[in-house]
């Protein structure tokens, strides 16, 4: 009986520790995923951190956060020979409806309001409406990297509300 009471007390203690509101806490997410394929290269992708900001940090009408950086890496490539040789990969992203000025930002899939996500790939803006245009990456047998960046942006003069900021992009890689 003592074990049951002790377990219940511990559960109550830990549950109340995680029940805080957004005003008094920060949160994050790490995604773990993988895949087994017959593709010419092994591929890894890193999550791009958007960091944590207070409503006060995003007070200006055009406030932005810092750029977070990740990458899509193609490693251990079998470039082949002759007619089966490959030398590059075209990476394209799923299109979306943009938000903000000229629809150039990606919508927030999290819970914070009046914010979006600005994304760059290889140093150039990735616009939601044209994200499916292929970005060509030259392949090396030892590996090649495509730089991906993102940042939180305020969408209007209205206040941002507390919550999460998130954008998940699907992409496709076609070896050539």
> What oligomeric state best describes the polypeptide chains here?
single chain
**Largest sheet, strands/sense/barrel:** 6 strands, antiparallel
The total count of strands amounts to: 9
Helix-and-strand structural type: mainly beta
Distance between the termini: 67 Å
Q: Point out poorly predicted stretches.
A: 1-20
Order of helices and strands: HEEEEEEEEE
Beta-strand content estimate: 25-35%
Return Rg in Å: 21 Å
Overall geometry: elongated
**Arithmetic mean pLDDT:** 85
The count of helical stretches stands at: 1
Estimate percent helicity: under 10%
Protein name: Fimbrial-type adhesion domain-containing protein
Organism: Ignatzschineria rhizosphaerae
InterPro entries: Adhesion_dom_fimbrial_sf, Adhesion_dom_sf, Bact_Fimbrial_Adh_Pro
Keywords: Signal
Short description:
The protein has 176 residues and is mainly β. It contains one helix and nine strands.
Notes on the protein architecture:
Residues 1-19 form the signal peptide. It comes from Ignatzschineria rhizosphaerae. There is one protein chain. The chain is mainly β and 176 residues long. 9% of the residues lie in helices and 28% in strands. It is built from one helix and nine strands, in the order H-E-E-E-E-E-E-E-E-E. It has one helix at 2-17; strands at residues 42-45, 68-75, 88-93, 106-107, 115-121, 124-125, 135-138, 144-154, 171-175. Strands 1, 2, 4, 5, 6 and 8 form a six-stranded antiparallel beta sheet that branches. Strands 7-3-9 form a three-stranded antiparallel beta sheet, with no helix packed on it. Strand 4 (106-107) and strand 5 (115-121) form a beta hairpin. The protein is elongated. Mean pLDDT is 85; it is low at 1-20.
């Amino acid at each position: 009986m003592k074990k049951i009471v002790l377990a219940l007390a511990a559960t109550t203690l830990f549950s109340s520790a995680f029940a805080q509101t957004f005003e008094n806490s920060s949160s994050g997410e790490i995604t773990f995923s993988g895949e087994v394929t017959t593709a010419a290269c092994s591929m890894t992708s890193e999550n791009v951190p958007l960091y944590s900001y207070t409503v006060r940090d995003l007070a200006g009408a055009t406030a932005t956060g810092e750029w977070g950086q990740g990458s899509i890496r193609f490693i251990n490539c079998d470039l082949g020979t002759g007619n089966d040789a490959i030398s590059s990969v075209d990476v394209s992203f799923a299109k979306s409806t943009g938000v903000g000025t000229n629809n150039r930002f990606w919508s927030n899939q999290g819970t914070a309001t009046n914010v979006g996500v600005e994304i760059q790939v290889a140093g150039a803006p990735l616009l939601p409406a044209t994200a499916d245009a292929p970005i060509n990456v030259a392949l090396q047998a030892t590996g090649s990297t495509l730089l991906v960046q993102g940042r939180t942006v305020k969408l209007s003069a209205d206040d941002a509300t507390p919550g999460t900021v998130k954008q998940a992009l699907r992409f496709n890689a076609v070896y050539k």
